[in-house]
Amino acid sequence: MRTEEVGKVSIDLLDELGITASDQVLGELERHHIMARRRGARVTYLVARRTSGAALGLLPLYQFSRPYESSLAPESIFEGQVPSTGSRLCSAGGAGGYRNHLFLRSPLTPACGADAARTLLSAAREVASTAGCPQVLIPDLDPAQARWLAELETDAIAVATRDKAVMPIGWGHFSEYLAALPRKRRWQVRQERRAFADSGIVVRDEPLSAVAAEVAPLLAQTQQRHGDTAGPHEAEFYLAMLAMTSGSEVRALVGHLSGRPVAFSVVHRLGGTWTIRAVGRDYAAPDHGQYFNLTYYEPIARAIADGATLIDFGAGSLRAKRFRGCRLQPLRSLLIETAPSRGR
Prior knowledge:
Elements: E1 2-6, H1 11-16, H2 22-38, E2 42-49, E3 55-65, H3 74-77, E4 88-92, E5 103-104, H4 110-130, E6 135-141, H5 143-148, E7 156-168, H6 174-180, H7 183-198, E8 202-207, H8 208-225, H9 232-243, E9 249-257, E10 260-270, E11 273-281, H10 290-306, E12 310-314, H11 318-323, E13 327-337
Parallel strand pairs: 4-6, 11-12
Antiparallel strand pairs: 1-2, 2-3, 3-4, 3-5, 6-13, 7-12, 7-13, 8-9, 9-10, 10-11
């Protein structure tokens, strides 16, 4: 088995690996590539191949200098297990967004899959070492990816698990979703839905590309409330990049009051999976439950009607998400040295 380093991913490579919805995956990788480069990162891709040349796996590698995506900060992922990792960060598979883009050929036996994953990480360590990064972060592995790299945990400086919230859609109508909630939660959801219905807010489902500039100030307000210093210009760029993700449908649910937008959420639709990608609101406008309705209830109701099978609500605010019926999916993160220490 050998590895090669390439500067761009092609649809042919993704198809060779047997990746489902390869056009959508390519669009996601291209968006991360542009966003990472805008932050000053170097982006390369490692490909594992059999000696015959057949592709077995793909691993994006992002080399960041501070400041970088907050969800990738090792000090917060590992909660004090490690000191500051310095000014440079090499991230294997993750550029933010609580997803790792380590892909292996489908199907592979568990042993062959683990071997391919180890080969890719060994190459990542070499690239990181050459770039002057003392560690490699492997963030947000889903359960299958974590199994491929389980042996690396014994060689890790730090290991952590954080959760994201997902909601399998198994109801035929929003009323069935409500009925599945415990009584107290059901009552609160009904109150929040009633307040929203009585507010006069009109929800429009529009292509994000058509409204990105209009709702960007709302996203900036929400980001600033959570400590981000980015302004409307940066928010608009982020939304424009989301809107350009090829192979998928990116929509905005925008709440209008008296003819102007007061809240919105972005729903990224990839086949049967919907992902909530961004939310924002005008905090000067009266609160009629815009956040909960546009973040949760409107997407749930529309996903049920559309026949979607899963909504990915992401990480953060997990208590509120579980209260509204989400389940938790563990994401495993590892921090490893660029070269294994002797004696490990």
